[in-house]
Amino acid sequence: MKLGIVGLPNVGKSTLFNSITKAGAECANYPFCTIEPNVGVVAVPDERLEKLAQMYHPQKVTPAVIEFVDIAGLVKGASHGEGLGNKFLSHIRETDAICEVVRCFQDDNVVHVDGNVNPIRDIETINLELIFADIETVNKRLEKARKNLKADKKYQAEIDVLEKIKENLENGISARAIDFKEEEQELIKDMFLLTTKPILYIANISEGQIENAQNDEMVKLVREYAQKEKAEVIPLCVKIEEELSGLEEEDKKEMLDALGLEESGLDKVIKKSYDLLGLMSFLTAGEPEVRAWTIKKGTKAPQAAGKIHSDIERGFIKAEVVSYEDLMKEGSMLLAREKGLVRSEGKEYVMQDGDIVLFKFNV
Description:
Elements: E1 2-6, H1 13-21, E2 38-43, H2 47-56, E3 60-62, E4 65-70, H3 85-93, E5 97-103, H4 119-149, H5 155-170, H6 182-188, E6 199-204, H7 217-228, E7 232-236, H8 238-245, H9 249-259, H10 265-276, E8 279-285, E9 289-296, H11 301-308, H12 310-314, E10 316-323, H13 324-330, H14 333-338, E11 343-345, E12 355-361
Parallel strand pairs: 1-4, 1-5, 3-9, 5-6, 6-7
Antiparallel strand pairs: 2-4, 8-9, 10-11, 10-12
Helix pairs in contact: 1-8, 4-5
């Protein structure tokens, strides 16, 4: 699962990417220093793994991971080939969700591609390019569906939903902000529209804005815009996050305490991105390994077992499940079992985030 980091040039995208992945993507104060997308795989912070490791003393601890892609800065006219145009759009098309960095700080030493700082204008510049690209996609689908309608009336439903999307797009409304009925959602699944991708806005603020970040005027503007798109906003100072990412754990905690923060903004971004992609983790725990396994929300037990090995899915018998909270409360699997908190679940069981599981199978 990939999450694309996008934004106008010089808003802090590559610095954010470097901080998240420590991958060292080139970072410079001019547009297009990132031409090919940089890719980094990062661990999802999960304090549950630390607690389980203290309980089981495993040889190995393996967290869940997600993939971040640093996509070069978009500019006005990208949908018509301006800047690096179609290349950027194709890179976004390959991601599962979007993390859009928005500049909410003033700094005369950092050039803004449009001359001055205006977060809503910046968001709309990018979103309109994605909308224009989607209008082109929708028009092509409409043309094809209208031709097919002559032979098969079932295409009328597709035409209806395409016209609904087109009307909204032409009014500057992203497809993710449209309320679709269940049957309409099925029809748009394979359209791969850019503006249906879930989005998270990162409001990049200065160090001086951290203390009052939630009430900062620019952050408020971004939040109001995001609410219309059913999206969330995380304000963070990318510059500070870059410093934090280079520190040892003890020094990092000291710096966070000094800033009055419980966790780094990057940890919030990574966790929220995982959630944005519709993902969650189930856990396995024992002396060889404590591990978080990534599955889509709504996954049933046999398919979750298949994440470990296809043979376990094929020969699935049952899953022995205890919630993380119950295990922590009792202090051991033995005590949790004695209290009847370890459940035996069958093929129809829908996995829950934080389930600690032992799969029984026979092949």
